[in-house]
Amino acid sequence: DAVLTFQGKNSVITLERCDWQGNYATPQRTALVSVGQALTVSACAFSTQHARAILVEGCRLTLTDSRFTRCGYGILDGGAVWHSDNDRTIRNCLFDRCFAWRGGAIAVNKLYGVDKCEFVACRSLDLESRSAGDVAVYADKAAAPTAISDCVFRQTSLVIGSAYDGSGARFVRSCRFQQGHVYYHNRYSTNHITDACSFDGGRVIEREF
Asked: Beta partners for 159?
């Protein structure tokens, strides 16, 4: 049940091929925290029950080829990942049955830099009472021209709080939704929520949370 915290600036922390597992007796914790130091995680596996896996604040996050299984705690946002609006790359990762207050897998203010990931049966406890408890990715807004691309959502959904950024944007591109939805509100008139996406048992829904 390890907890690591990095603080500072002008440095990069790198984790490769790590297997991080824990069932945290003290809840409301984050297993890996980096404040002010860029974090790169590659080819790692996380299973942090009763704890968020990763929090990165005020610095770049690069997350590739990693797996998150049953990560999260019910009153924290972002069961696997919470990241502030700095440089971000999240690519080729699997988020399986993660849960949180909002954003079972990922919680951010502005959504961008998510590519080729798979989200499976992730939950947001805060949204269950509003019939949207199946949300894996929760963002207050999305960044133009593309916020998320080539991802798969299975029995889980995506929330974009505001789709007003930019002009002519296509925020969700080439994603597949199997029993999952895209929720959004406040769309700028020339923006498109989805482009080249497919839905099987789901759809795009305009709704404010």
From this structure: 138, 183
Q: Tell me, what DSSP letter sits at residue 129?
A: G
Residue pair 38/12 in contact (Cβ under 8 Å)? The answer is yes
Tokens of residue 88, six digits? 């971000």
* Cis before 27? omega within 30: no
Longest dimension (CA), the chain: 49
Single-letter amino acid, residue 81: V
Average pLDDT, rounded, for the chain: 94
The sign one gets for the Cα dihedral 98, 192, 176, 65 is negative
Instruction: Let me know: does 183 contact 199? Beta carbons within 8 Å.
Output: no
Q: Residue 42 in 3-state DSSP?
A: strand
β-bridge pairing 176-178 and 157-160: unpaired
CB 207 within 8 A of CB 183: yes
**Entry pTM:** 0.96
162-177 pLDDT tens trace: 988 888 899 999 999 9
Q: Which amino acid is at 110?
A: K
Residue 187, strand partner residues:
none
Q: List, for residues 14-23, the tens digit of each pLDDT value.
A: 999 999 999 9
